[in-house]
Amino acid sequence: MFPNVPHTGLPLSGLVVLDCTIWQQGTYATAMLADFGADVIKIEGPDSPDPGRGLSEAYFESHNRNKRGIVVDLKHPLGRETVLRLAEQADVFVQNLRQGVMDRLGLGYEAVRARNPSIIYATASGYGSKGPHARWPAMDILGQARGGTMMVQGAPDQPPVFSFGGMADQVGAISLSYGILLALIHRARTGEGQHVEASLLGGQVMLQSFNITGTLFTGQVPPRRSREDAAPLWNVYRCRDGGWIALSMAQLSRWWAPFCEAVGRPDLRDDPRFCALPAHMDHRRELIAELDRIFAAKDQWEWVEELCGQGLPIAPVQDYAQVIRDPQVVANDYIVEYDHRSGERRKMVGPAVQLGATPGRIARGAPEFDEHTEQVLLEFGFSWDDIQELRGQGAIGAR
Q1: Cα separation of 16 and 33, whole Å?
Q2: Do 120 and 187 form a contact (C-beta atoms < 8 A)?
Q3: Distance of CA 166 to CAs 162, 265, 318, 373, 384, Å?
């Protein structure tokens, strides 16, 4: 797939990715490729660094680990030509600027394809490239809003509830990286490059596939439900220590009897209000109140260990402080150590998927601004005289 390049043992080693992305959706998509060996070259402007640099160190590191960073002025004719020369030797070009910006800069798909017909040109957008609102600005919270996820979360009497910051961005990023890999497989078979797209809106619709399909099939929009209106065994409960647990026992006929035994309430097992449908749901508020009293008698992890030990599907509802100490998170390398540029060993959320033979890795943190400009250009065939000329003209490098 990537001929004439050394193989490092990682599945994407030798893949060259030019990364003209900012913020999160596009940047995390390319970070996922970099985790598995792709040489991702992050391109920033001298007067327009990725604004994610100013948000927080954790934000920028998470989305730009394993990349090399160069500074090129895309508005300068020589800067644009520099990027096109890089694109001639690249496999993938990724951008997430607002619709039309790259075309105006002379770096849209057609311009890049003219220099490299086999390029995979990937675009992350807010609302997709077609339709009347393709050029409207969009960020993560707007993707959640327009994609419907806000309106299905929270109690009916609450305002629309947005998820954690970055949820739409992360789903869009995963979709984009998936599309890039599909396009690479197609190119390996046919030699053809193509334009790949993913969006915040498309990702949110995909995330709710069966839910939205249900509305298509029935014409009914599912209502928001309070906790008291949800199924008693598909719900959350507060424990004695203030922690919460989640139950996921949708099959009442399978789980009701063993659940009653496990919580020490065999008297509930044959209670006609609770032991079978539809009475179970008709009396759900009474049952939820009873389960509230039961679970308030022990601490969170007492219940988790006791009930999971008996084969019941429950889990602790954890905050981040608990997640990073979770023995399953630790054992499965969902959080890994890496070498930070400060010289420290730090921890970060690891690669999104795990491969048994060729696992991804975080070899280094995010690049400093302008850290690799000369190194990258030299590798791509620019001479020192070329680099000095470009710097002198203000086409590359920090100012």
Answers
A1: 10
A2: yes
A3: 10, 42, 19, 29, 41
3-state secondary structure of 20: strand
CA distance 110 to 104: 12
Q: Cis before residue 278, ω within 30 degrees of 0?
A: yes
Measure the CA–CA gap between 212 and 206, rounded to whole angstroms: 9
Mean pLDDT of the chain: 95
Average pLDDT over residues 213-237: 95
CA 304/CA 244 separation, integer angstroms? 10
Q: Look at the pTM and tell me if it is higher than 0.90.
A: yes
Q: Are strands 39-44 and 68-71 parallel, antiparallel or unpaired?
A: parallel
Q: pLDDT value at position 2?
A: 62
Query: Which of 186-200, 243-257, 339-353 is predicted least confidently?
Result: 339-353
**pLDDT grade for 302, boundaries at 50, 70 and 90:** very high
In the 8-state DSSP scheme, what is residue 45? B
pLDDT of residue 88 exceeding 70: yes
* Confidence (pLDDT) at 165: 87
Say how far apart CA 151 and CA 154 lie, in whole Å. Answer: 8
Contact 139, 209 (CB under 8 A): no
- Going by C-alpha positions, the residue among 340, 266, 390 that lies closest to residue 60 is 340
Structure tokens at 207: 């995330």
Question: If you write DSSP's letter for every residue of 187-223 in order, what string do you get?
Answer: HHHH---EEEEEEHHHHHHHHTHHHHHHHHHH-PPPP
* pLDDT surpasses 90 at 120: yes
For the chain, the residue count is 399
- Please name every residue paired with 125 in a beta bridge, in sequence order, or none if there are none: 199
What confidence score (pLDDT) does residue 399 get? 85
> Does position 16 have pLDDT exceeding 60, yes or no?
yes
* Burial of residue 6, with CB atoms counted within 10 A of its CB: 0-12 exposed, 13-18 middle, 19 or more buried: exposed
List of residues 6+ apart from 395 with CB closer than 8 A:
72, 73, 76, 77, 78, 79, 82
SS (H, E, C) 82-141: HHHHHHHCCCEEEECCCCCHHHHCCCCHHHHHHHCCCCEEEEEECCCCCCCCCCCCCCHH
Give the tokens for residue 23.
């913020």
Q: Quick one: average pLDDT of 41-68?
A: 96
